[in-house]
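Subject: Interface between my chains keeps coming out wrong

I've been trying for a while to get a sensible model of this assembly. When I model each chain on its own everything looks fine, but I need the whole thing in one frame so I can look at the contacts. Pasting all components below, labels as-is. Any help appreciated, I'm running out of ideas.
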Amino acid sequence: METAFTPVASLGGGVLIGLAATLLMLTFGRIMGATGILAGVIQPTSRSEFAWRAAVLAGMVSGPLAVLALTGQMPAVEVPITVPMMIIGGLIVGVGVTFGAGCTSGHGVCGMARLSPRSIAATVTFMITTAATVYVVRHILGL
Amino acid sequence: MRLVLAYLIGLIFGIGIAISGMANPAKVLNFFDFAGSWDPSLMFVMGGALITTFIGYRLAFGRKAPLLSDGFQLPTARDIDLRLIGGAATFGIGWGIAGFCPGGALPALGTGRWEVFVFVGSVIVGILIAKALQSSAPTATQAKA
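Reply #2:
Try treating it as a single job with all components included. I did that and got this:
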């Protein structure tokens, strides 16, 4: 499935992601990591630790609706894979981000911006295995 | 007040993800498909997010403490160990299969598409499995103590 090259929207979206990460550090002193926020909502350690994460999560989920309100169009979600692959992929992602202590937002954006050696190592690693997996799935298995 | 602010920060993140294309698995998978229908858009997402955060963090860390909290809570781990690299490698395999990462999928829940709920539900199960494994297999340091 071909997708259109969208450098301006993607750059603008990236700047907003960075702005959100900056604001969360400036106000709450926390890393904007989707893994940590999700894990802190499903297994809260305390009421106050739960509350700010739940509020951030609610804001995230409202994002597409805000885009719909502003532009009149719901952001595209095109799923080129089967449901079993979605489930298997999700399970593997959940295990991986827990052991790896972060994902694209926590390591790839916030950790890299802090020049954390752990985050740089993690990001290089998952970028390589993601690309290798896409190659195997699409060009060797032909799924 | 704190929670309203947290909500607005999440909203900015969610809008950013939604317009960037990170909430669209077809676009994410194409970014990694150099041998096929390559779409370089996500390079601009990463670039824009990284440069903004790099500058923003320097401004934030110029303060003694965050505005609403006693201190910056930053990861303290330093080791680049098998757990980190193995976990990151595993995450990449899942990302390459599904085309969603957690940061892309959580805002995408707002589109109401059922596939996103299937993915996020699976991620939650994966997190709970991994946490159960971690607590049943103590780390070397815990074992020593």
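Reply #3:
Confirming on my end. The mean pLDDT of chain A is 96.
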